[in-house]
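Q: What does the predicted 3D structure of Solute carrier family 16 member 5 look like?
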Amino acid sequence: LPQQPAAKPQDRGWAWMVLLAAVLLQGLTLGFPSCIGIFFTDLQREFQASNSETSWFPSIMVAVLHGGGPLCSILVKRFGCRFAVMLGGLLSGVGMVSSSFCKSISQLYLTAGLITGLGSCFSFQAGVTALGYYFVRWRTLANAMASTGVSLGFTLWPLLSQYLLDEMGWRNTFLIFGGILLNCCVSGAIMRPAQLSNGASSPHPELQHQTRRTACFQMLQKYLAFDIFCQNKGYQIYTIGVTWMMMGFALPHVYLVPYAIQNGVEERRAALLISVIGFINIFIRPLTGLLSGHRVFTGRRIYLFSLAVLLCGLSNFICVISAEFSVLIVYCVILSIAMSGIGALTFQVLMDVVEMDRFSSALGLFTILESITLLIGPPLTGLLVDITSDFHYVFYNSSFFLISAALFMGLSFCALEKKNKLKEASKVPLDNPSRYQYNEMPTEPQSESQSPPAVNPAAAKEQRELCFPKANHGITAMVTSAERQKLCQFNWFKSVPLRSHWNFTCTFQLVALNNMY
């Protein structure tokens, strides 16, 4: 028989090149939307657009980036991770190059918003999937290291954007960005199909002999788990809370730079604010992940998450107090700490409330619902700013959604936990009934006509005194080990059926002794 080819090693060798590619991918995709706020004012001037109209551009990009997950999963299963990453890089590059030639703000929605957002989604999610094939033992470490790419992107993209904007204008900057995002294709080329330990490649099953209606139904059932949403109260509360939270979560990223510029902060220094958020994230996010992984917080990560969301909402009031650059730096530091907690705990909490065998289905519905509020949140707030001509409403709005979401999730999970404890306490433990009662059959076979064995009155009195010593408030006092041994010598208990409250109490006294010793 021909020998099968040896499996390619996991957790070593080429796997570390794949990890490096994943770091680059996350910096190019998830980190990219952080720089869009720097172009906000220039795009308004170019297209004579309102705050609401301009904010649709980053909203569409971020919403598609989060909500395109089920489509990316289908693509990965059909063609593999490498194809999905390279296709995403191509779409991202084409979208940004096309946006540099836009003549209206609506064209920008299609090019930089939809096409670039969809390409970023494909590259990011397929890259994370590839890590799962290449890493087994060090998978947690690999995912943590790959997530540092997001923080690096948050730090570097705003600085590069401001420099290119000052030197070349926004059109040429978008053209250069298209070339930079094409590097996702280079990262995809590194992610060659992984060979698993049994010699088989990562599975890419094809749909065969299925009608279109059956295939669509199975796909919806697999990636949009509405049954989990209806039956799992924890998942229901968490999904509603995060969806509501996203209405205000993205607002500071979109409007912070325009707000600072409007209040007299220099454009270069205003761009630095976003970089501060990313730089703090590099250090705080891994620490938050390590802290939340401690056994003390097992099953209680939702409360840490709610606390981070609450801190994020309260920090917005700092911007309302003052718009000086030093105050905004303090705001960015506090906001970054809160964001690090949210970013590190979002999917950990989801894993806590959903079984792992249904996690992918729960994640699909979760990301689609949150993408809807990510899409409509900034434009609605921009409309409010257009009506009032006051940027303070951005931070009022953000605080309202974040604080209300934090209180809703924290209090709801607390009430759900108490309800579950009451249910468990009300259940009668019937797993082992012999622990709570004696067998009514005697230890030695006896006929029904036989009378109970004769009992020595002195011995019975001694036994009752051991079972029911005097104690305050009717609570049975504790007996010593020697007394317990003496008590167990009596066979009278084993032959008398439970017919009275006195016998029932004796039974529980013996059970308590057995548990105590």
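A (community wiki): The structure tokens above were generated from the sequence. Residues 10-194 form a domain with the Growth Hormone; Chain: A; fold (CATH 1.20.1250.20). The mean pLDDT is 79.
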